[in-house]
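Lab notebook, design round three. We kept the backbone fixed and only want residue identities now. Task for the bench partner: fill in a sequence for the structure below.
Input structure tokens:
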């Protein structure tokens, strides 16, 4: 008498242990990896979202600073003052005169075309005797990088300048090493504390990237406005990581169901193969 498929001993045995394969070393490893991937991908999504919010906040600060009305530099900067994030890129004005005798150049700086040259850093003596560091812009290193370059002269006498307030440069923030033993009148970083020691003067914290008056004959090349950071990519990456995290358990479930079906077919076909084998005499 034929035994119904539902009552076949092999089928019943398989039915009771259909998911027993999940206890195998291979599937335990797959499950553990999936369990590790889910929180990792969720964390990566939050990390990308934090990056998005940081960049978006920075873009708003830059836009607000550039849109603000100019103020005298003395209102925001003082000797020893560290320029804050809210003050960075603020447009300031200053009245005084340039001191080209103590002018230096900043090495390894590029222009809009990625050409390597120098930034020209000129002390600007205010009416009260304090000094403001002014980055007048970029010049090429035509005579090499060891000799002091030909620097176009700034306007003489008392003038009013305008520019963007910038914080002191540091190795930690810029990644630029402050090398020693440089050629005369060359520096690596614009730092008001170091320049105060060199000049023996009261130097306002930070420096100003000059925007007006514009240089004659186009040199030095004044620095352009800061560009906005692309924060949309970080937002997209965050969503992507969270979708990956959601896909992991779905993928695990699909693999388990497929494995179970294949094992079920194999268990059902095994008795049939035994019954069709010819009997040995």
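Proposed sequence:
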């Amino acid at each position: 008498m034929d035994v119904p498929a539902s009552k076949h001993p092999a089928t019943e045995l398989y039915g009771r242990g259909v998911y027993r394969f999940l206890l195998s070393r291979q599937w335990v490893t797959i499950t553990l990896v999936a369990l590790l991937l889910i929180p990792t991908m969720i964390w990566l999504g939050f990390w990308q979202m934090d990056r998005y919010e940081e960049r978006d906040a920075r873009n708003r600060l830059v836009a607000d600073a550039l849109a603000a009305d100019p103020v005298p530099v003395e209102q925001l900067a003082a000797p020893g003052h560290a320029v804050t994030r809210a003050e960075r890129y603020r447009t300031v004005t200053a009245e005084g005169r340039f001191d080209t005798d103590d002018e230096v150049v900043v090495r390894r700086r590029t222009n809009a075309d990625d050409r390597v040259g120098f930034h020209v850093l000129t002390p600007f003596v205010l009416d009260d005797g304090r000094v403001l560091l002014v980055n007048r812009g970029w010049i090429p290193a035509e005579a090499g990088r060891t000799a002091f370059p030909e620097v176009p002269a700034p306007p003489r006498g008392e003038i009013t300048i305008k520019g963007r307030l910038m914080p002191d440069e540091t190795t930690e923030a810029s990644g630029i090493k402050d090398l020693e033993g440089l050629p005369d009148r060359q520096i690596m970083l614009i730092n008001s504390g170091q320049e105060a020691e060199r000049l023996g003067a009261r130097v306002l914290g930070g420096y100003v990237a000059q925007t007006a008056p514009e240089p004659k004959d186009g040199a030095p090349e004044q620095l352009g406005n800061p560009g906005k950071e692309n924060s949309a990519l970080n937002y997209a990456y965050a969503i992507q990581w969270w979708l990956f995290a959601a896909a992991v358990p779905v993928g695990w479930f699909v693999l388990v169901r497929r494995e179970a079906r294949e094992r079920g077919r194999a268990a059902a076909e095994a008795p049939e193969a035994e019954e069709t084998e010819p009997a040995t005499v």
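Keep this in mind before ordering anything: Residues 8-14 have pLDDT under 50 and may be disordered.
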